Amino acid sequence: MARQTISCEWSSKPRHYLQECQKIHCASEEVLDHPLKPLVVTVTESRVVRRAFGGSTTSSTGSSTPTPTLDPLGVTLDGSDPLSQFACQEMDPLSKMAADSWDGIPNSKRGIDTTEDIVEPWSARKSGILSKFTTSEKLSIVTSFLSGGEKVVVKAQSSVVDKVKNRLEQLDDFEEGSVRQMLDLSQQEYMGRIEQLNQELVQAWHHDQRVKALKIAIQCSKLLVDTSVIQFYPSKFVLITDILDIFGKLVYERLRTKAEYYVPGSKTPTALPENFTPDMVPESAKETCRNWFYKIASIRELVPRLYVEMAILKSYSFLTSTEFSQALLRLTRMTRGIGDPLVAVYARCYLCRVGMTVATADREYIKENFYDFLATYHQLFTPTIRSELTKLKVDLSTYLTLYTPALDWILHGVATNAPEKLLVEILARCKEKCNSALLLNSIMAAFKPVYIASRALQFIELLSACDEEGFPQYLLFRTLGLCLTLADPPADVRLQVLNDVWRIVTKLEDPGHYISCAEVWIQFAVKHFSSREVNTFLGDIIRHMTPDRAFEQYYTQLQAVISKILMHTSDFESLFTMDKFLPLLDMFQKESIKVSVCKSVMDSFTANYQESTNDPVIINALMFICRILHDSVNALTVEDEKRQIGNLISAFVRNVEYGRDFEQQLSFYVEARSAFTNLDAVHAHLVHSVNRLAVETRCIVKGHHTRKTAAFVRACAAYCYITIPSITSVFTRLELYLLSGQVALLNQCLGQADACFKAALSIIPELPPTMDVDGKQKSTEPYLVSYVSQFLSTLLVVPDNPEQGVLYLTRALINVLQQYPWDLSCNAQAVIYMNVLDMLTAASQEYYLYHVEKVDSNDTLYGSDPKFITEINKMCSILLEEILIHLKNLGINEQYQAQATLAVSLFSRVVIRGNLKDGALLNLAVNLWNLAQKHNCVDPKQVTKIAEYLKKKSLQQDGNVYSELLAKIQFRKE
Amino acid sequence: MAINLDIKVKRANKVYREGEKITGLILIQSPSDIKHDGISLTMEGTVNLQLSAKNVGIFEAFYNSVKPIQLVGMTSEVAPAGKIPSGKTEIPFEFPLTPRANKILYETYHGVFVNIQYLLRCEMKRSFLAKDLVKVAEFIVEYKPSGSEKATPHPVKFSITPESLQNVKDKSRIPRFSVTGHLDSTVCCITKPFTGELVVESCEVPIKSVELQLVRVETCGCAEGYAKDATEIQNIQIGEGNVPCGIAIPIYMVFPRLFTCPTLSTSNFKVEFEVNIVIIFQDDHLITENFRIVLSRY
């Protein structure tokens, strides 16, 4: 092994870059077509044009060369590609599937489908209701299906004692002895119990205990009669109707799948298809279905009977396709028997909900439901209800808000696709009622905002009249505001609308009520009025929020105000000229909220404000906001947060542009640096910005710096040099030093460039051994290799400092590399050394491959002085020795694969860069080759490539050495 | 006991009319061969009358129960003594549904004191040691469309006020109220719901519930005279809680199957129906308004 590690004197091969370049330059010719074009332009313009697949490459459009024979692909596709074919269908496949899953009469299906799309699904409202209507009071459940709780004796309620208790009556009576009443349940426990009932039902169903399942459904709906904890009622409704929905679905699906349907022509029974018609249903299935309805019709109590029938309403489609409208109307009328208006309105709500899922286009019943509610509306304000409410300790306005979810849903059903005249009709009927606030609120929420907006003044008049007790007036104005954000009232009344509304809203004393209106109306103001009005608006908000530090309670609303202003303002100038905007920001005194508000301001600034600014007002204001953001960063801030803030501030820095006033720009950067000291990202961005500034300066003077510009670019370089050290990341620092050095070099600031490079070299040892890449720890050596390579390519053109020795930066680099704690099992160090070798050979040429304009590189400085060349060769020899030592070590450690790879690359280096006429080098090459071949670890492809290269070279002039080399090494025949 | 004996009639709803043929299958399922001494199938229809203890003495009720009236009876030997192979065996059968002489096939009715029932009884006689296997299946008889009366609407209006009440002891304790309404018909088709409307015009005290009570009135004739009993079939709530005043609340009730039949009046027994509208006040006082109704099949 030792014989290979001979030290060897290096001498570089002289290169003539210009000549080489000319030799390899290809002849170019002018073309008219883009070579890739025909592949792209085969899209057909219309369905008639047949696709020319793989059409001739010369034609510019595929359609111009119709293929005479029918293309098989074209035939199947009918001249259009599958995507556009799908697009041509009136329905996309998904909605088609959805439409098909709605059973029903095929001919009316289309109509339903369209309305389905428009009606907002109930599920969207569910969570809202559940979170809004909560209680801290204790609830109770009476049921026979849950364990725990105390036993109670429920008396049979039938007034005539019967000695035969028949099946019919047993259905809705509790099983004797098993009834348990659970008292004192918290809301959470109560919901848990209901969920338990739900599971119990599904389980019973799957264990073929269908009567038990029905009983559970009945007991659940019985819970809806109980209004004892009235604030929770809407949520209870949501929970229980969920169970009923499941029950209905179970019944329906079972009937469908159990029905033995014979597909025409087939003898084996299958389940009914999803879109069956009643005449396809076999008699036995109809009988089972009828049995369900008979059973339910005999449920004693009204409310459970109604709810359970509604739940399985969809199953009517097994019996008849026409009964839905009748059944819906009948159920609507039967609901009138429910005395408690709250229970009744929710029963109606469920009816409308179920009605929308069954196959009927008839919506008359929804209107009927609403008018029935109107007819009993006065009930809500009767003394009986009031005394009930005082007993429950609930005030009237809270009570009325309990109606909104149900009423909204019913009216929503009425209003969907309704013509404008229906609104007029309904409005007229509602006006007749006193205390119509609740109704007006739901009307505004349900009807198309356009209709509401065009009557804005009329509504304001109506709403202003609703100042008696009952439904809170502020909610009305809030709802109106919401409508007007969706649709604009006529332009000529807008100001009057705002004035009229605000005359009332500003009088609201409760800051909570006030802000919930303001939060909505600010959007109206921002959308339609100038910053002057908005400013007044903001002033009003501040005035209302300041007393008793009310703002502390309403941060979310205030945040919404800000975000709405931001959403509709693209003009930041006017935003910051409003003297009330920053005071509004000041109201956020809780650190975390303040930061998130500032973030949203910056977000919208970066998103909306594309062009740069130099407006001092904006800059000052944004600087203020960014400082808040920056100051929120501390040692505990998570990385992601830092990154976000860093990005926002960087975006701000990027947007500030003083045009040709470079001095001003630089001083802004100086200010920014002092303001945002904690964020790496911002510093890095600032360094980039300043570098850009320097390069721009150079562009303007076209490389000829005047004294003034020279001083300026030096100032830029100095800025970079002193900013970089405050960055924590070693990687960023390394890159920025290199970049700044390059920029300095470009601007002929040699001293500054030197300083930057030196600084970069000094921190290479600080590089951590591993870094985090996508959450995995990876060695930094590949990074270092690429960084050093880049560094070297820069060093080639850096002129030597006359006060220092020859190539002192390169030497310094080699020294640093030598000290670096390399992982010896890896070739990284040797690879870098080979790269240095490359660079040094390039440095020994008479003319360098590239130069920096107006900077004299070493080729000019030394003029290929023999002393200089010797110096370089000396360095090369040392490097070569280092590499050879490494090779030897690899051999000792038996890492033959790595050894072979390295040997081959060094071999290529020697052959390409080295002067082979030097016998020692030739010898070295031969030895390296043999070493590489020794353990048979070289990729045979690479071997053949090298062989080809050598053969080619040997045929050229001066090819003797190569032939000599070829003769000396043998290619193993595989 | 792994042998499974079952009777399946062809119609899913098991409803047959006079003159029709009852067809079906006897299903025998067994893991092993069965030896038997013959399988027979009997069709029978009977009216069972019972006297209530309320009308006659408790002993009479016990001893004097009226002899059942057989409406139809027919037996056929399905299979002679032999063996039935293991597995599933299906034996088809067919009976013409015709009444015995001088008898009428009444509709199936399940009551308290009167029961009209039609059964198919399959019996597998087995040897001395093994128990006989019996399976009973009920089928339902309805009147034919022809020859039976059709319900002609007979609307009734009603108005309930304190003044209209009977058997009140203390008039002064009755609150002021007025309930009006109408029934669409007191002659009803049994397959159609019982409908009408009810309006609480005014009421001094809150109402707890408004209910419809369906009552059967069964009369049995015996040596000592008639025994008439009214019992509840079902009770359907149509108004829950304090129902709103001035709004028409629908009266809607589906007649339960089996427990109702067309009104029946024969020399030996009668089955009649009544509907009570019951208004229960918050203080549990209740007012009842009674309506006799006539049910018919068509």
UniProtKB/TrEMBL annotation, chain A:
UniProt-listed InterPro entries: VPS35L
Record has Transport as a keyword: yes
Main location: other
Keyword Metal-binding included in the entry's annotation: no
UniProt region (Disordered), positions on chain: 54-75
Compartment(s) where it occurs, according to its Swiss-Prot or TrEMBL record: Endosome
Biased composition (Low complexity): 54-68
Signal peptide segment: none
Gene Ontology biological-process annotations: endocytic recycling; protein transport
UniProt keyword terms in alphabetical order: Endosome, Protein transport, Transport
GO CC annotations, alphabetized: endosome
Family, per entry: Belongs to the VPS35L family.
Protein name as catalogued: VPS35 endosomal protein sorting factor-like
Annotated source species: Gryllus longicercus
From TrEMBL, chain B:
A GO term from the CC aspect: endosome
UniProt record, GO biological process: intracellular protein transport
Alphabetized InterPro entries for the sequence: Arrestin-like_C (IPR014752), Ig_E-set (IPR014756), Vps26-related (IPR028934)
Membrane among keywords: no
A Pfam family: Vps26
UniProt entry keywords in alphabetical sequence: Endosome
Localization annotation: Endosome
PANTHER family: VACUOLAR PROTEIN SORTING 26 RELATED
Assembly and interaction partners: Component of the commander complex that is essential for endosomal recycling of transmembrane cargos; the commander complex is composed of the CCC subcomplex and the retriever subcomplex. Component of the heterotrimeric retriever complex consisting of VPS26C, VPS29 and VPS35L; within the complex interacts with VPS35L. Interacts with SNX17 (via C-terminus); the interaction is direct and associates SNX17 with the retriever complex. Interacts with SNX31; the interaction is direct.
Function: Component of the commander complex that is essential for endosomal recycling of transmembrane cargos; the commander complex is composed of the CCC subcomplex and the retriever subcomplex. Component of the retriever complex, which is a heterotrimeric complex related to retromer cargo-selective complex (CSC) and essential for retromer-independent retrieval and recycling of numerous cargos such as integrin alpha-5/beta-1 (ITGA5:ITGB1). The recruitment of the retriever complex to the endosomal membrane involves CCC and WASH complexes.
Family of the protein in this entry: Belongs to the VPS26 family.
Name this polypeptide is given: Vacuolar protein sorting-associated protein 26C
Provenance organism: Gryllus longicercus
